[in-house]
Amino acid sequence: MTQALGVHYLLELRDCDPRIIDDLPEVQRILLEAARRSRATIIDTVFRKFSPQGISGVVIIAESHFSIHTWPEYRYAAVDIYTCGRIDPLSAVGYMIEQFRSGNPAFVMLKRGLLPQPFEDLQFRLGRPRLPVQEDPNEISEWFFLDFINPSSANLIKARRLIFSARSPYQEIEILDTQAFGKCLMLDGRMQSAQVDEFIYHEALVHPAMVTHPNPESVLIIGGGEGATLREVLRHQTVRRAVMVDIDRQVVEACRLFLPEWSDGAFEDPRTELVIDDARHYLTSTGESFDVIIMDITEPLENGPSAPLVTYEMFQIVRSHLKPLGIVAHQSGSTGTSELHFFASIHKTLQAVFQYVAPYSIQITSFAMPWGIVIASDALDPRGLTADEVDRRLRARCEVEKLRFYDGAIHQAIFAWPRYMRSMLEELGQVLYDDGPPLYRPIDYAITIG
Ligand code: SAM
After folding, report:
1. How far, in Å, CA of 113 to CA of 115, rounded?
2. Is residue 9 domain-resident?
3. Tens digits of residue pLDDT in 154-180
4. CATH number of the structural domain spanning residue 5
């Protein structure tokens, strides 16, 4: 968990008016006015003109500094604004773009001075931004959010509005409105689910295991903060009891408030029991067993809350809470070729514990990479079900017209892996143990580019 002491804006002003960025009094005036507009306290200025052209200048403010260096011959100016967060640099950014007549501006925002953050209660920080929040929801701003898909790659997502932002004791929570995917839940800078295609992820995670079980009555969901996994589980009329155990009350509450379509009333269903607890602690303190266990957890970042949930020891605990025909579905991370060693490790760890282990991969556009799920059981193999049998069971248990992704044909298709990936799954990865090295190292900073 981290908090930023300051924010650094690196402003790229290309295609500027070369006369303006070579005019010392004008450059000085614009920077000072920009600092004033951002409500900074100005302390001092130093500006120099170079021969034959170009200007360097700095405005020292109580909150840190504005600086500029210009290259009139390239119509380019580099502006840095570093602030400790008590001012509003975004208004200065817009002003400078306009005054220097930049036809092609861009800026990068870096969080600086990241420190450990103590516990904070749930807070709705609209108007108290760590990112450029719009106070007026009708006013659309556009900037890019960096989604850390996995340790080696990230995806830039054009965001329109930051709806919610908080730091819980376990993770950073952000709910964004994005141009491409509608509303999105991000945890620790990673996409969890998006409005346009969350149904693919949640149907694919839940139904193959649920349908494989002949009569799923009791279901445990580990994680699943949005409530959409719960929504899909409850579609099965066989279910009498669904326990959802999520460690983070703030995620659950923020999703209920800002993403109510995800749970769609599932938390109010009389079959639901919501438990706020660490899932491993919950399982070691209950004697209850379940027909189906769905593990809908975050990426196991080093020292993160889900790291202890993907080990051999944890899967033994999970296994001991399954009824005789019990079955587990586990969201197991990206199946992109560059990341397959992570997925392969979770697959190998489940293979070390369960008799039947069936991995599958699905496409979810907002995740930017193919995504993997593994089903494990000592009694049931989902690959043995025909498409007709899947459709028959669905018709008997669910309102099938409400499903948008899953049916018998998809059930058959998702377990097929290309030859090169079958080989990679065998070659890569290792069984994960509690005292083994961490699977994922966190990237504890965020950058936005707009
Ligand atoms: N769809 C997601 C993905 O692609 O990673 C997972 C979604 S869901 C939001 C993940 C949930 O797992 C979060 O709400 C988080 O609080 C929960 N979680 C993480 N570690 C946990 C733990 N040790 N016990 C229970 N819940 C946990």
Report:
1. 6
2. yes
3. 777 877 777 887 778 898 888 888 889
4. 3.60.90.10
Domain of residue 37, residue span:
1-117
- Please confirm, yes or no, whether 291 is among the known catalytic residues: no
Looking at residue 105, its pLDDT comes to 78
The single residue of 278, 296, 378, 435 carrying the catalytic annotation is 296
Atom of ligand 1 nearest to the CA of 296: 6
- 331 ligand 1 Cβ < 6 A: yes
Best of 250, 297, 299, 339 for a ligand 1 pocket test (most atoms within 8 Å of beta carbon): 297
> Is 205 a member of any domain?
yes
Structure token digits, residue 223: 């994680």
pLDDT in tens, 226-256: 999 999 999 999 999 999 999 999 999 999 9
Q: Within a domain: residue 165?
A: no
How many independent structural domains does the chain possess? 2
Which CA distances in Å does 54 have to 14, 28, 103?
Answer: 14, 13, 19
State if pTM tops 0.90: no
Please tell me if the CB atom of residue 225 comes closer than 6 angstroms to any atom of ligand 1: yes
366 C-beta closer than 6 A to ligand 1: no
3-state SS of 351-401? Answer: HCCCCEEEEEEECCHHHCCCEEEEEEECCCCHHHCCHHHHHHHHHHHCCHH
Q: Using a 6 Å cutoff on CB, does residue 197 contact ligand 1?
A: no
- Per-residue pLDDT at 414 exceeds 60: yes
